[in-house]
Amino acid sequence: MIRQAKGKTPRRPPPKKPSNNQKDPVGVYCRVRPLGADDEECCIEVISNTTIQLHAPDGLKANRNGEYKETQYSFKKVFGIKTSQRELFEDVAKPLVEDLIHCKNGLLFTYGVTGSGKTHTMTGSPGQGGLLPRSLDMIFNSIGPYQAKRYVFKPDDKNGMEVQNQVDALLDRQKRDSQTTVPKTPTTRRIDPEFADMISPEEACKADGVDEDSSYSVFVSYIEIYNNYIYDLLEETPFDPIKPKPPQSKILREDQNHNMYVAGCTEVEVKSTEEAFEVFWRGQKKRRIANTQLNRESSRSHSVFIVKLAQAPLDADGDNVLQDKNQVNVSQLCLVDLAGSERTSRTRAEGSRLREAGNINQSLMTLRTCIEVLRENQMCGTNKMVPYRDSKVTHLFKNYFDGEGKVRMVVCVNPKADDYEETLLVMRFAEMTQEVEVARPVDRPICGFAAGRRQRNQAFKEELTRRLEERGGPVDGEFPTVLNQLLQSFPPLPPCEISGPNDDVTLPRLIEALEKRHKIRQMMIEEYNKTANMLKSVLQEQDSNILSKENFIQEQRGKLGEKDKMIQNQKNEIDRLEKKSKMLEYKIDILQKTTNIYEEDKRSLQQELESREQRLQRELSEKRRMESRMQGMVTDAKLKWEKECERRVNAKQLEMQNKLWVKDEKLKQLKAIVTEGKTENRQPQRPSREKDKVPPKRSASPSPVPTGPPVRPLHRRSHSAGGERWVDHKPTSNVDLDTVLQPNIPNAIKVNAPNEKALSKCDKYVLTHQEVASDGEIQTKLIKGEVFKTRGGGQSVQFTDIETLKQENPVAASRKRRSSETDPDGEPMEGDWTDVETRCSVAVEMRAGSNLGPGYQHHGYPK
Ligand code: ADP
Ligand code: MG
């Protein structure tokens, strides 16, 4: 809202803006135009009414990767290709027009690549009017009946607005009418076909809540910013076809309220949509002509159409505009069609054109930078300087971004693949712009007059007209009755017929009566004025009451807004915390899972450990058992071996004794032979049996041996003694020797091999054994023993005596020894000894029931 300061007061700091902490983000809308006839590839998809998705065209995807994946951009609203101009207007521009009418400023610009539909959106075409003609139409539909007469409002040259008095305004109007060049009033002029049918009447819309007690006037300006120069498109310059004058650029100034304006810019007061649009069209034409003449491209310039709405309250009578500059409110709506946002490379410009392109780029770049800095300041609480002054466009609109009204942007996009890269940049900028917040404009304060003035004034005027028409007729209704009563309260007029030229009575009486009436009237007027003043003061009091209430409400609203903001912040915080907690929950989940896995591992490892321990235990006990078994076995074996050793020692001892005995025997025999040579034919004498007595302990058999069996002396020819029975054992291998005396044992059982049956029947045993003696002669030995019954039921023989029968041959000494046993080495054999000795040393044991002879049970060990 551009508030007017008193014209005559010196420059003063701008009036403090009503405190307002509420802010709104820049509203960014996206409009997608349909593909052109020649464009095949589409790189944009509308995926919801707030989001679009860009995907790189095939050609680009191949070149780079990563950067060209699908990207989504969200806006306040996205308008697809089927969106009508009206729908767009309803959403985007209508609220701005409503604001304009309620004294608030607005800025609306279209942004996008050349050919993306900026001009189509802003201006449109016949039958498809854009935001601009529709906005104008809505303005006039809303304020139409409340418009002030032309020239009542008059712009000063300092961006302010004055209220002219009736007479000056009338004079100006007359002057205008006399100028033929100025287009005629809307009712009489013909509509240019170029902009006819921009809006169909059924699409007309109207703002609500228009203050009827105000008077309105609309002023439009149209400027172009080209190459960072500002040109006034509505400036009336005498056209010289021979030497056209180049247009003069304008400069930007700051008014008393620090608002920026184009100094000396034409502001045309317009009274209807058609008139306004006609002015716009005039500017367009001028622009086109200038572009053609100067060889410029319109896509490189920014065009700014400014609609200013001046409004001031009607005076107390509701008749005229209040003649108070302080009460004039001016709001403005800027409609900007920005230059195409393409990069220099794409414009294929060279030389001065390149510079131009650079400047366009520069001004859009500055816009970008400003928005970025603003955003950063707002988001991070920094206070960086926003470089508005770097370009004319941003400089002109600086107040909007600093909080002087609503800002909206329509981002136009052409979905064709060629534009992809530039569209990407446009989208990024547009999305970022949404993060900038602009202070919400506050409602204007109330002027202080009672509402409904215009209505009352209207009603009064109507009544007066009616009354004039019905002059003299009967009066009805409340108002005429009061008037009648009033009239009747006056003293009646005396007869006023003058009787003659010298009538001194009638006239003075009439004069007196009239004076009386005059006095009464004066009194009544005074009374009326008093009452009116009283009423006025009451009303004013009430108005101020209302005003303070309004202010209070405003304040409360502000507070409410703050609270809202706080709530919003807290909500955001809650959201953030919720997200965080979700994240943490997720992490906990993962950790839990990890813990479970570890626990599982631990459990399985423990189980394994336990099983291994058990196995170890088992093996240990097994080992111990084995050890004890081994111990047992060892002791067993030790015992066995000890016994065995003892047995063997005994056997050995026996054997050695036997050997000793045999040798002794031989020695004795030799002795006998030696002595026999001295006593002729004397039979060799066997030494005393007592001497040959076998040692009592001869049996090595484990079987119990009867201790010390009596050894009876045996004779060479033994005879059967009484009841003795003999087993006569003669091996079949024996040779019959006639030369030797054979023992004749009566009643003997002759056997070739000893057997148990025979042994069991006898108590004596004799073995006839032949062997070759050392001199080569066969000697026969009679080995005798006694048969004992063993405890096991078998038979055991204990040898007691050996008799040797030998055939003596004197030449035998030279005879070659005949070996009975195979002895290939011819070594002296001791087998003869051994055999006898062995047999003698061995006790033959027959087990009861055994079929085998004692030979088989022989316990002797070979040498
Ligand atoms: P810009 O001003 O961005 O350079 P224009 O508004 O001149 O683009 O649009 C270029 C062409 O595309 C015009 O012929 C226009 O009629 C057409 N066009 C743009 N937007 C639309 C739309 N939404 N629907 C139909 N045609 C469109
Ligand atoms: Mg355009």
From TrEMBL:
PROSITE patterns: KINESIN_MOTOR_1, KINESIN_MOTOR_2. Residues 822-835 have a biased composition (Acidic residues). Residues 703-712 have a biased composition (Pro residues). It is found in: Cytoplasm, Cytoskeleton, Spindle; Midbody, Midbody ring; Nucleus. Keywords: ATP-binding, Cell cycle, Cell division, Coiled coil, Cytoplasm, Cytoskeleton, Isopeptide bond, Microtubule, Mitosis, Motor protein, Nucleotide-binding, Nucleus, Phosphoprotein, Ubl conjugation. ATP binds at residues 112-119. Residues 25-436 form the Kinesin motor domain. It comes from the Eukaryota. Residues 677-695 have a biased composition (Basic and acidic residues). SUPFAM superfamilies: P-loop containing nucleoside triphosphate hydrolases. GO terms for biological process: cell division; microtubule-based movement; mitotic spindle midzone assembly; system development. Residues 1-26, 674-739, 806-838 are annotated as: Disordered. InterPro entries: Kif23_Arf-bd, Kif23_Arf-bd_sf, Kinesin-like_fam, Kinesin_motor_CS, Kinesin_motor_dom, Kinesin_motor_dom_sf, P-loop_NTPase. GO terms for cellular component: Flemming body; kinesin complex; microtubule; nucleus; spindle. GO terms for molecular function: ATP binding; ATP hydrolysis activity; microtubule binding; microtubule motor activity. Its main location: cytoplasm. Residues 525-629 form a coiled coil. Pfam families: Kinesin (PF00225), MKLP1_Arf_bdg (PF16540). Residues 1-15 have a biased composition (Basic residues). Heterotetramer of two molecules each of RACGAP1 and KIF23. Found in the centralspindlin complex. Interacts with RACGAP1; the interaction is direct. Interacts with ECT2 and PRC1. Interacts with ANXA11 during cytokinesis. Interacts with BIRC6/bruce and USP8/UBPY. Interacts with ARF6, forming heterodimers and heterotetramers. Belongs to the TRAFAC class myosin-kinesin ATPase superfamily. Kinesin family. Component of the centralspindlin complex that serves as a microtubule-dependent and Rho-mediated signaling required for the myosin contractile ring formation during the cell cycle cytokinesis. Essential for cytokinesis in Rho-mediated signaling. Required for the localization of ECT2 to the central spindle. Plus-end-directed motor enzyme that moves antiparallel microtubules in vitro. This is Kinesin-like protein.
